[in-house]
Amino acid sequence: MTRENEIFKQIEQGNMESLDELIGLYYPEIFRYCCWHTSNRANAEDAVQETFLKAVRYMDRYAHRGKFRAFLYRIAANTCIDMSRKKYEVPVEVEILEAVPLVDTSFRAAEDETDFLSLVRQLPEEMSELVFLRYGQEMKLREIAEITGLPVRTVQSKLRYALKKLKKTAAAEQNEERALQNMQDKRGDGDEK
Fold it and tell me: How many alpha carbons fall within 13 Å on the CB side of residue 150?
């Protein structure tokens, strides 16, 4: 029995303190997801809070079959969409997603993630969502299908297409960087003579 199943069994028995543990279990990944979809950390925090409030509010409608994670992601997605439609904005100083690390890693890994995120953001919205769920949130194809409402095969083929597109974009950017570096090197050689 998974920890999630144990927690739901305790909740069904009336132990509402287990609800805190359930929220703690998923809070970090739902927060990362909301950071991906909102303009700043404060908005993401509000979206996460709203997501868990809605989850608790609709808990009596949720029949646990081991898919609570997908249930939370659907709520978080809808919450972020609602916030963007309302042009919801918490006034904060300039803050960008890249300032919020996806995982606690070294500087180089954080820099690589920032590069990855900027590449993914260049994809069409549906594709970037799939790539982020798969690689940013480390979800299985089946879970992504549950969240998005797409068939597993469709998720798989769209991911494959998105990755090919990302590789082309990354290769083009590397070629541009090399060309710039070559130009700078040539200028540097001319300055020394």
Answer: 16
CA dihedral sign, ordered 165, 83, 155, 134: positive
Question: How far is the C-alpha of 142 from the C-alpha of 150, rounded, in Å?
Answer: 10
Do residues 35 and 25 lie in contact, with contact meaning Cβ atoms separated by under 8 Å? Answer: no
pLDDT, one tens digit per residue, over 141-190 is 999 999 899 999 999 999 999 989 888 888 887 787 788 788 877 776 65
pTM: 0.65
Tokens linked to 30: 């739902």
C-alpha separations of 133 from 12, 78, 148 in Å: 30, 15, 10
What is the DSSP code (8-state) at residue 58? T
- Tell me: the pLDDT tens digits for 19-42? 888 889 899 999 989 988 887 888
User: What distances in angstroms separate CA 162 from CA 37, 125, 131, one per listed residue?
Assistant: 18, 11, 7
Is residue 41 within 8 Å of residue 95, measured between CB atoms?
Answer: yes
The two tokens of residue 37 are: 């979809």
Tokens of 132: 């982020």
